[in-house]
């Protein structure tokens, strides 16, 4: 690599990289201190140390990051901390006493077309995000279209100045993080960690200077292609054609949308091969019963099932987004698809139909009705769907392990891939309450009021206790907090404490600039309610649209 140095390989094993001879003054060279990384049991990085910095990462049950804290021995408090809550991220710079918040609109950090940014609890400002065909962030503009940040990259992801010259490591370390990358993300939408010169691609860490991952890929996706056996290479050594969103499987952009199904086929093959291996291991005689032809067959049908399962997931979207009837149709689709596959394999159509349908219903019920902490557990979801699939297959005369495969496929490539329906949010502007989907489109809107008397819907009065409308900010409510009131209860409530209509739910403050509390979203016959949002007779519609979501966010902006 002409601008970095020379790679050294083993003479006995010419494919094995043993070291590098670095060029003095190489643009990627900051210092030669040893970089140490520790990993969790699920192969995600826990700590990264080097250049006098140590980053510590924490994760949720689904292995998504929750915090990243960067420390240096010279400072008692964290040098930098990032918190992740869904589409919301907050950065705290300890040395500069600076806080930057971001909320991605219409998608996540990899796909959102816009983002709200706030510095030091000031005003939220809208920015638009521009990406190239690889998903790399190239330009960010303000609400008026003025470019406020511009980024460029080498084909392998090295950060470049706008004139095309690469940033040196000393420049990266001396430049404020938010000036280097306004969103903290750049190449293919992933987080760049300038303290270590690495890109966090979720499952693995990637070094753009040498175009290699720091840990091996656990999956061989194309066994007929020799490049795929280099488990440290990035995207088959073809970064202009492929990207790697998860750090494990790459996506193809030759045909729009194809990447999703390539990924599904890979996962399906992995699940099919793994369950065959488990079935042999637990059989009488163990691995003496191993059959390579049967193993290949399991992987092949697993790949086909993965594609069909992902297609059904794409068609039906998030779990619960189409109501109970939608989940029933989802289950029927899974039943038909898996019945067809088991029939092609020479087994009974009914076995695959029952196993696919019941495992789909089980996965939907688990995500919708289980307590939030349990439903978010990825292992629990896999286990529940896999067990239901296996038992239902065995009861109908089929193969238990084939049913387990169907259940795992349904859980991983449909339910967990699409997620629970939490993509609807509410927006209140002082005149109307709107239900907004993940793309920012309004799917329902109704008039709504907040505040009493002359202060009703008056943003200038939002800080007046017991009179002013609900303050600007972000709120949320949990599905299990909804209260449905009978006619008798409504009349009693009207006489004793106010008009709340057929449904009401408490609003929790996510962020606002007020010390007030006790907010509700409710209906009622008489408009006007201090500190609450009153939707009147249409509260039932809001309830029905969002009741299958675990959490719904409400944004108040006058």
TrEMBL record:
Top-level taxonomic group: Bacteria
Repeat listed as a keyword: yes
Pfam family, one: Tlde1_dom
Entry keyword set: Repeat
Chain ranges of the Tlde1 domain: 448-537
Residues in Teneurin-like YD-shell domain copies: 126-239
Protein name as it appears in the record: RHS repeat-associated protein
Species this chain originates from: Porphyromonas loveana
């Amino acid at each position: 690599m002409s601008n970095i140095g020379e790679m050294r390989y083993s003479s006995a094993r010419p494919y094995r990289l043993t070291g590098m001879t670095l060029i003095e003054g190489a643009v990627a060279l900051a210092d030669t201190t040893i970089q140490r990384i520790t990993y969790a049991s699920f192969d995600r990085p826990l700590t990264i140390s080097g250049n006098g910095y140590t980053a510590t990462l924490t994760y949720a049950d689904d292995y998504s990051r929750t915090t990243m804290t960067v420390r240096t021995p010279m400072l008692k408090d964290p040098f930098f901390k990032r918190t992740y809550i869904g589409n919301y991220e907050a950065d705290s710079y300890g040395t500069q006493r600076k806080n930057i918040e971001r909320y991605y609109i219409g998608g996540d950090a990899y796909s959102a077309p816009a983002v709200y940014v706030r510095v030091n609890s000031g005003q939220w400002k809208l920015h638009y995000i521009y990406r190239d065909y690889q998903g790399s962030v190239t330009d960010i503009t303000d609400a008026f279209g003025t470019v406020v940040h511009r980024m460029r990259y080498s084909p392998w992801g090295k950060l470049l100045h706008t004139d095309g010259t690469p940033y040196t490591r000393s420049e990266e370390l001396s430049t404020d993080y938010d000036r280097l990358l306004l969103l903290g993300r750049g190449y293919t939408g992933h987080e760049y960690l300038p303290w270590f010169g690495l890109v966090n691609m979720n499952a693995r860490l990637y070094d753009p200077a040498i175009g290699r991952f720091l840990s091996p890929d656990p999956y061989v996706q194309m066994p007929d292609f020799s490049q795929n056996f280099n488990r440290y290479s990035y995207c088959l050594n073809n970064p202009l054609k492929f990207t790697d969103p998860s750090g494990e499987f790459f996506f193809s952009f030759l045909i729009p949308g194809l990447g999703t199904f390539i990924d599904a086929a890979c996962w399906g093959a992995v699940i099919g091969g793994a369950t065959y291996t488990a079935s042999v291991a637990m059989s009488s005689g163990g691995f003496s019963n191993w059959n390579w032809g049967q193993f290949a067959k399991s992987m092949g049908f697993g790949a086909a099932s993965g594609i069909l399962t992902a297609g059904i997931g794409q068609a039906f979207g998030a779990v619960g987004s189409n109501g109970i009837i939608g989940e029933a149709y989802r289950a029927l689709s899974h039943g038909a698809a898996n019945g067809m596959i088991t029939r092609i394999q020479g087994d009974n159509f009914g076995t695959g139909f029952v196993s696919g349908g019941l495992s789909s219903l089980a996965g939907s019920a688990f995500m919708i009705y289980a307590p939030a902490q349990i439903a978010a557990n990825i292992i629990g979801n896999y286990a529940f769907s896999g067990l239901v699939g296996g038992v239902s297959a065995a009861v109908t005369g089929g193969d238990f392990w084939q049913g387990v495969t169907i259940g795992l496929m349904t859980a991983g490539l449909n339910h967990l891939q699409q997620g629970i329906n939490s993509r609807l949010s509410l927006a209140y502007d002082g005149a109307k309450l709107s239900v907004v989907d993940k793309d920012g489109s309004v799917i329902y809107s109704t008039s709504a009021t907040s505040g009493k008397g002359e202060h009703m819907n008056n943003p200038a009065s939002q800080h007046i206790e017991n009179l002013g409308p609900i303050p600007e900010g972000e709120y949320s409510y949990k599905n299990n907090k909804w209260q449905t009131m009978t006619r008798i209860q409504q009349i009693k409530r009207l006489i004793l404490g106010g008009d709340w209509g057929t449904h009401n739910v408490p609003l929790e403050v996510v962020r606002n600039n007020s010390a007030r509390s006790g907010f509700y979203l409710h209906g009622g016959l008489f408009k006007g309610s201090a500190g609450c949002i009153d939707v009147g007779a249409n509260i039932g519609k809001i309830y029905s649209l969002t009741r299958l979501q675990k959490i719904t966010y409400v944004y108040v902006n006058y």
